Amino acid sequence: MNQIPVAQTQATPWLVNWLGYLAIALLLVLPAAVLTVRAGAWQQGLMLYAIACLGAAILLLLAILLLLLPRFAPWRKAVAGRALVALPGSLLLLSILGAGSYPRIHDITTDLQQPPVFTAAEQRRGPDSNSLDIEPETLAIQAGAYPEIQTLVTEREFEDMFDRAVRTATEMGWEIYLQDRNAGVIEAVDTTAMMNFKDDVVIRLRTNADGTLVDLRSVSRVGLGDMGANAARINAFLERLAQQ
What's residue 107's pLDDT? Predict the structure, then answer.
């Protein structure tokens, strides 16, 4: 006579059920958190996002523990299914933790002695945005954290480099809202794909005996730190510009 598996004759334990309920709830919180950030409530949205990721990781660890316990052997398939629901949030948490540690600054420039100055960004950033004032403490922190970010010096003509800078910014998806060829200034905003964060960028071109000097400054509109986004943006721009 065929025996009926124990899992089919006994009710699923409440712990296994609640593991699934919570995993589904936290999975739904992730897109809700992103939408909250995109709606402008970025602090609340990021908090929800962090809670959802951390909660999912805790549930995944609990699921692994249940899989190892002989008492829950009849329901291992059910536990594994609930663990898969908690996997996305756990992976997002690992990606955040694995990104490394970054200084709590949000204003990065290639020229620490004479940083480029914004002229049109102030009217676009809004009253609740970070200040565009240059902070000596921020410059000192950047010098230690990102020593590789330097002015680009090229033998190409100023006019050529200005056109290349505009083309590079456009190819990178930046919204250019100021082009002043006479002043050698380009201002633009870069919007992140998922959270819709907006960071302003000013590109300054000058000439001297060495050729054309290209400097950038990238500033986040909100947040104390930028998780290295502004430095990565500047490096990506300069690399792409050099390949034009």
Answer: 97
pLDDT at 81: 95
Residue 193, CA distances (Å) to 41, 74, 174, 199 in order: 17, 43, 12, 12
Low-confidence ranges of the chain (pLDDT < 50): 1, 4, 6
- pTM for the structure as a whole: 0.84
Q: How far apart are the first and last CA of the chain?
A: 76
The tokens for 241 are 């510009």
Return d(Cα 183, Cα 120) in angstroms, integer: 13
Q: What is the pLDDT of residue 5?
A: 52
Cβ contacts of residue 211 below 8 Å, gap of 6+?
153, 154, 155, 156
For residue 85 the two structure tokens come to: 């629901």
Closest CA to 238 of 170, 190, 174, 168: 168
